[in-house]
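Dear U.,

For the methods section draft, I wanted the exact inputs and outputs in one place so we can describe them consistently. I've listed the two proteins in the order they'll appear in the manuscript figures. Please don't edit the token lines directly; just add comments below if something needs changing.

First protein:
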Amino acid sequence: MPDTPGEAARFLTRNAVEALPEGELERQLKQDRPLRVKLGVDPTTPDIHLGHTVVLRKLREFQDLGHTVVLIIGDYTARVGDPSGRSSVRPDVDPAEIDRNADTYTEQAFKVLDRERTEVRRNGEWLDMPMEDLFRLARTSTVAQILERDDFAKRYSARRPISILELLYPLLQGYDSVAVRSDVELGGTDQKFNILLARDIQQAYDMPSQSVLTMPILPGIDGEQKMSKSLGNYVGVHEPPDEVFGKLMRLPDPAMPVYFDLLLDEPLDRAQSPRDQKRTLARSITEQLHGSEAAATAEAHFDRLHVERGVPDDVEEHTFSSDNGTVHLPALLADAFGLSRSEGRRLLAQAGVRLDGEPLEGEEVDLPAARLDGAVLQVGRRRFKRLRQL
């Protein structure tokens, strides 16, 4: 562990994109008191994925140095919708769904964070404010200042709609920093404008401005776009060990260095083959999320399925729907592989169909959808489809 404020600041900022203002974090660390380190997350979906853990891992480093993490669940800001990177107005989100998602967020975050050193708050505690307080908040910034945001500027110049509610979002996020008296705020690079604006809002409320640490955006397992559930290129922290291991083994080689840097905090071993590098990554992350025994079992499952059975690493996905939670296999085989239903029944009877490497019995013509979701369906020796339920 670092011994001096300067060493601590260099340790905490080593893989960050920016630490602003320059030298401010070191100055704060010299105060010799626990800092309040803030992260806000909007629970618009129920799952936290590995992209979220990049910032969570940085928060854990602050905790390990004795500082307090303030995890803000944006149950109110989620009702507005973060406009960062958006080219159109977000649709309304069901408040009941937001509340359900909020309940799952904290438990998932504690896979990385120390529960004892985490203060969990919902911003509905203070954003459900009287109009007079909202008026005061609105006076802290100007329209011109808000329109400096890159996404707002692009939408404004293209004459695309920007709702008044979206313009309020950066102010509401900034007021979170006032409410919890944040010393440091973390976020992805796409949050830089919002976090910097919070500094101005804190000044308007006569309190010291927080410092800012922005972290890189983790690419998804396609190696190209930002990890996102909507793009289907994510690894969820609550996904089963087999899924976590298998997804990471499909990661393109060029994305490996950033995954090692941000998720394992170690350099890629160039002496290893790309396949062994992926094994190291998949095993380590699965162990972080599920423990060493589960990671070993997941790796053995992967070997049975992909090495011993000859299943390719990159299997085309096939989506399916179910009737009351049950799937008729001859119909699924017809849709997935272009077979006739009679041919599908014949292959089943001859043990010519495998599910995750195991032959299906001839009488198994109807299976639970849950058993099929995420599994690899195999016909013959070289035809595979990974099944995903709609």
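Second protein (the one for the lower panel):
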Amino acid sequence: MNKVVVTLSLVCACLTAQARNSTTAFSDETSQGTAASADRALNPVVQWNRTLLAIVRTPGAQSPTLHPTRSFAMMHAAIYDAVSSIDRTHRPYLIRIPRVSRRASEAAAADAAAHDVLVALYPAFQTTLDAQLEQLLSQVAEGVHKDQGITVGGLAAEAILEARLSDGSGTQAPPFVFASVPGDFQSTPPNFPKPQFTEWARVAPFALESASQFRPEPPPDLTSDTYADVFNEVKSLGIGKSSTATADQALTGSFWNGAVQNYWNEIAQTAALATALSIPESARLFALLNLAFADDVIAFYDAKYTYNLWRPVTAIRAGDTDNNPDTAADPNWLPEVGKTTPDPSYPGAHAVISASAALVLRTFFRQDQFNFKVTSEVMPGVERSFASFSAAEQEATLSRIFAGVHFRSDLTAGRQLGQDVAAFLLVHFLQPVDR
């Protein structure tokens, strides 16, 4: 296994010059800018990110066999390459369109790139997407520079769509066969869903050399003291209406029980608007973030279906079959959030994605401290406040214990995997041209 661990200090050292080219550090005062001023300064990168979030949140819009992180990575890679072809301060992800005037419209390039990718991926939304493109382009001054931007955006979109045409995402997954050995993943009560994304590790990564590049070591043995500890922790704290979890822990488990990459895209929107990032800066930030997420998902599905570890609800109900004297069975146990995500437990997806997100944001902005609020994906109107990216990362990660769907060991391995993926991306992709 080719396991390369890049420390956070190395990432920060490698990217000092890069960060200077990206943005200036922000202050708490900057982060408290009014929503009205932020909306007036809204750039197209944030707008199209919001649009794609709205699409994937629309029931039935996202194919159940295509992970949405692929769409975000494709759209933001196209936006980045289009804008980068004009700005030219950083290396392209996939393509640098030649002979582009530096006066070409970056906004028009971003709009055209995003629109063309989304129409190709979500043709049912073409009317809405066409209307949004027309509205956004109406804000760009007419002339040759606008036309050049539109052309550049179209070429960048065409390049990423062609590159991902045969990436393995369309592979039909064969029927999944559950094993019956203690410790093996089983369909989970109370709804017993079919496993999801069993073949997603075969999708070509966007940045990683392979899906298994940073595959974690195996989970704790069922007979170990470590396994008994993590088993009993989630058994106590993650059960529905737990008598040991605090009210805030139970709320945390439910608050984060959604598509965690969506939360982090909205956190990035908040940071981008609060710091008034330029279009090139925003394009690079969201490309880094979503390329990391796409490879996170490919990597953690590789690990999940390699180790095939059962979920806590299965483990706790069958606690008398694991040959560990310190794990007692509870045949009626159900998690706080009711249902469990239909894939193996190890490593934890929330931990992987949150670790990647926090590292990208800390590195891009060159600091961790930032005051922001997060709205729940699944609890409308409920917000939680944070003073740093790391604080949100920690809460999102630990929430899976309080939700009753992960062991702590899943989260420890997931956090390392997420850091490894993001560190590799930050060091090797979207670098300044003079580095």
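Candidate sentences for the figure legend, describing the second protein: The chain has two domains: 1-32+188-435, 41-172. The mean pLDDT is 91.

Thanks,
Y.
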